[in-house]
Amino acid sequence: MKKYIVALTILLTSTYSNAQDGLSEVLAAGLDAATSFTNSYAEPAAKAFSYNLSAGWYDDARALPKGKFNVTLRAQATFSSDDEKSFLLDPAVYEGLIQNSYDNTNSPPANIRVTFGDGSITPRLIATALGENDPSQSLVVISTDRTTGIETSRSVIELPQGLGNAGVDVVPSAFLQAGYGLGAGLELKARFVPKIQIDEAEIAIYGGAVQWQLTEVLDKNDVLPVEVSVLAGYSILDALYDFEDGAVVDGLDQRLETKSGSFTLSLIAGTDFKVLNFYGGLNYNAGTTQTDLLGTYTVRNSGSIFPVSQTFEDPITVKTDVSSMLGTVGTKLTLGFFQVDASYTLGAFDTVNGAIAFKF
Question: Organism's domain of life (predicted)?
């Protein structure tokens, strides 16, 4: 099981770092343009992380009996629609943002022009952190002297790729989850992946939940083999990626930090058989993901339209909130102390989930 967790964690950290690689280079266009781009680029992935974390908290409507516990190895993948893999970038909008940034630097008067790498100014779809630019995309920022009309500088900014460039169509996660029966229909749950560092990326997942089996303590009709529970859980993902100095941007302690927290409240119903069971749930999910571009970033004037080098400290923060109703259906097979389950959660971002567990 340990090898399986490590393998899936490597997948998550490597694809996460691939999605963010090159993002700091957008600072060559100025802070306003970089902030706008980062918001559009990162928001879909932030939503996907939140929905991924909210899934997988239950595999049964029954709580563990008092003193019983289980250990589960769980893996899940969250899918995104094509709409979340790209956003429409209009060079004219970025032209205005960069012009405003340039005018505020007291540099010699100049007019700013922005095109794509092929010279087009027609808006086009550009990859988010979940997508892929095929072919690669860039923005060309040109400044011309406002009096003479002579071109004074030209800067080419390569736009970052997303997870799709690594051949990954999902946001994956894997973690250990444990449950312990407290009695009176209550079960305490915990999930975690201890902080693991692979190359320039590191990641940790942890969280806790309480499930209360209502039919354990309330009068019920024993004619139907159906149990009902409620569950409340909270999960956190901490991820970090260290940048290297780029072709245009130098700096110190450059890194991208993401913290995603997701709260889940579920109403669960399921069958009560010894071997094969089916369950379903209605879930409310609320989550917040914050991504911070931290460190010192110095944009060299040789690679930028700004005549003087600019330095930014902890320049960008992107915060994304989500809340929605989700539905889950699943099945679990129990063979003595060994259990296998699979579920599917439907919503704004669908998540498929699979697990093996050992009950004691």
Answer: Bacteria
Contact 22, 90 (CB under 8 A): no
Give the range among 198-202, 245-249, 284-288, 323-327 with minimum mean pLDDT: 245-249
Best CATH choice for the domain 2-83+167-359 from the list 1.10.10, 2.60.90, 2.40.50, 2.40.128: 2.40.128
> What's the pTM value of the predicted model, to 2 decimals?
0.87
- Kind plus residue range of the DSSP H or E element containing 311: strand 310-313
Print burial letters for 317-330: b (CB count within 10 Å at least 16), e (below 16): ebebebebebebeb
Q: Does residue 2 have a pLDDT over 50?
A: no
Output the CA angle 283-284-287, nearest 5 degrees: 125
Inter-axis angle of helices 31-54 and 91-103, nearest 10: 130
Q: Where are the domains of the chain?
A: 2-83+167-359
Torsion, CA 323, CA 326, CA 332, CA 337, rounded to 10: 20
Write the pLDDT tens digit of every residue in 198-222. Answer: 667 778 889 999 999 998 877 655 6
